[in-house]
Structures are given as C-alpha cells and as structure tokens.
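Exercise 7.
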Amino acid sequence: MTSAPSPTVTTFVGPGGPVAYERWGDGGPPLLLLAGLGSRARLWGELPRLLAGKFTVLAPDNRGVGGSRGGAPFTVDGAAEDAVAVVRHAGFASASVLGVSMGGLIGCAMAAGHAGTTDRLVVASCGARLTPSHRRVLRFFELVLTRLSPAEAAEALMAFAFGASFADRYPGFVDQAARLWTLDPDDLPGALQQIEHLRSGWDLRPLLARVACPTLVLAGELDPLVASSTTRELAAAIPEARFREVPDAAHSVLAEGGAALLNEVVEFLNV
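Solution. The predicted structure, written as tokens, is:
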C-alpha cells in the first residue's frame, strides 16, 4: 500500500449538530473509519495514511468530541446518522465501514438502520448488548476519566488495550497509543456523556438480522473490556458474518494482529 499526504479536514452541520471528519486520499472506493469511546479521528494514528493508498478514507470525530462537539447528546443511533451524513457530504452514496469498540456499534447501527449505505462492514472488539461486565467496564472508564488527569487516564487504559505479550514487544507503540488516546480537556464532557448513554443499555440483536452487506467481525482472544464470547454473539446475529478471533490479543486487535491481519481486512474490504 502506498502512503498519502496529510488529510483535508471538513466540518459541516449534520443531523444533530457539527460533524468534523478527515479525508485521506482520493480516487479509491470510500472507507469510513469509526473509532471508539471518546475518540477523535486522530486515534487512528498512521492507519488512514496507509489505507489511503487503496481507499478514500473518511475518519470522523465522534459526536461530542473534537470538531463534533456542541450538538445533540450522543446516541448510537444519532452517531449512525452522523456517519451516513459524512459519507454523503463526501460525495458518496455508500461506503465500506471499519468500526472498533463503540465505533463497531455505530457501524452495525448504520448498516442495520440505513439500508444501502454500507457496502462491506468490519467490526472489532464490540458486543451486541450491554452485559453486566460491560456495565462495570463503563464505570471503570468513568472513574478513570474523572479521577485522573487525561494523560494518566490514557496510561491506565493502555493496561487493558493491549495484551501483555504485545505490550512487552512494542512498548513504544503502546506509548504512542496512549498519547493519541489522551483526551483534550474540552472533550471530557462529551466522553462522559457517551459513557452515560452506553450505560443506559443497548441491544442490537433484534436489528442485526437487517445487516445485508458482507461482514467480518474481529475479537481479541484475551480482550478484558469486551469478552470474545460477546463479540462472537454479535457475529452470530448478522447473516453470514465471518468471525475471526485474534490469538493473544486484547482490545486493540487491529494493531495486535499486525500486518497479516491488516492485509486480511484490506482484502475483505477491497473485493
């Protein structure tokens, strides 16, 4: 894959207020990247630049953070509407979608609730419903974000984002991930509101049968935040979805799976 120059950044008025997104590359098929809790487009690090050799990459800030602050409160359905709006604002009728963690929920809601907008779907490290374990994890996130500084919170969360073997082999990568995930102080209210919404509960299982596009679901074998079994449950609810468990990986399966997994994902998206 060839690299791309710096992205163009655009902000427009979406269904619930301002929506900001980065656009990398031009000419390839559109690929929408949907990141997780509290995340701005910068969380993706170098991935958009790498993918822009094959795709036109669209990476929004989630509702409530970054350039997407100041609008309606976050909901998964509202974020799915924002995602569709980004695709259309960029000049496309539909796009393939890659969503991780909360971004996976948004991607599923987009594919299930907005027919014809999602060409192919890859979701990683997310569950179809709120479980007791998820509720405790969200409470942990709330405590970490409110009782530690942004940098300290990011450092603490890295203990759960990567498996021990990966973190020991690539400590510099984990340090960089912590810097990318560190919240700007102005993003804290939006991140906490996302947590509040997720803790109110979700259950996508009744809707997932509507997902009509080819789907690949990824899980980390050792994910302490979203158990592999709950991600497998999500995959089972989507017609003909492929499920792939990444050995020894925790929550950041795309990074932990390395070049081999990224190539597999690109091949799936590029059919």
